[in-house]
């Protein structure tokens, strides 16, 4: 037992780098965006937590797919929604799914509630944002 204690002390003394110097000189930064999205599909409310931009984009595409199937979708990020008393409404219509996703994400990040429906006669996504 005494021999083990002596060898352990010697092993620590032979290390090239001091661990505390390494930790003090290193900055570990984990940039992570968390979205807590509250949404309703035809009036039924849900809540989901998304842990990356990729998950968030995929989720918005899923909401768009539901709108394409005839559902009315409303959503917002509870971390960024504006609590101001102003009444501001912005509308946007497009036949491009990619443009609809980009617009919806931007409006959500800007603190708006966002609604989307799909008009299958004109093949158009009709988006409304308000705060």
What does this structure look like?
The protein has 4 helices and 6 strands. The protein is globular and about 40 Å long. The chain has 131 residues and is α+β, with helices and mostly antiparallel strands. The chain has a 6-stranded antiparallel beta sheet, covered by helices on one side. The termini are far apart. 37% of the residues lie in helices and 30% in strands. Helix 3 packs across helix 4 (97-109).
Radius of gyration: 25 Å
Rounded to the nearest angstrom, the distance between the terminal CA atoms is 71 Å
* Helical percentage: 25-40%
Say what oligomer this is: single chain
Keywords:
globular, alpha+beta, 131 residues, six-stranded antiparallel sheet, 6 strands
Question: How are the elements arranged and paired?
Answer:
Elements: H1 2-13, H2 19-25, E1 35-41, E2 44-50, H3 53-68, E3 73-77, E4 89-94, H4 97-109, E5 113-119, E6 124-130
Antiparallel strand pairs: 1-2, 1-3, 3-5, 4-6, 5-6
Helix pairs in contact: 3-4
What's the gist of this structure?
This protein has helices spanning 2-13, 19-25, 53-68, 97-109, and strands at 35-41, 44-50, 73-77, 89-94, 113-119, 124-130. With 131 residues, it is an alpha+beta fold.
């Amino acid at each position: 037992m005494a021999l083990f204690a002596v060898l352990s002390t010697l092993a620590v003394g032979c290390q090239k780098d001091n661990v505390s110097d390494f930790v003090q000189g290193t900055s570990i930064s984990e940039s992570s965006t968390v979205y807590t999205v509250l949404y309703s599909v035809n009036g039924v409310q849900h809540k989901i937590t998304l842990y990356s931009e990729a998950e968030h984009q995929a989720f918005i595409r899923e909401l768009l797919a539901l709108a394409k199937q005839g559902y009315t979708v409303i959503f917002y990020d509870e971390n960024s929604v504006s609590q101001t008393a102003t009444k501001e409404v912005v509308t946007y219509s497009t036949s491009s799914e990619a443009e609809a996703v980009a617009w919806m994400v931007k409006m959500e990040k800007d603190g708006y509630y966002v609604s989307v429906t799909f008009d299958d006669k004109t093949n158009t996504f009709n988006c409304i944002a308000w705060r």
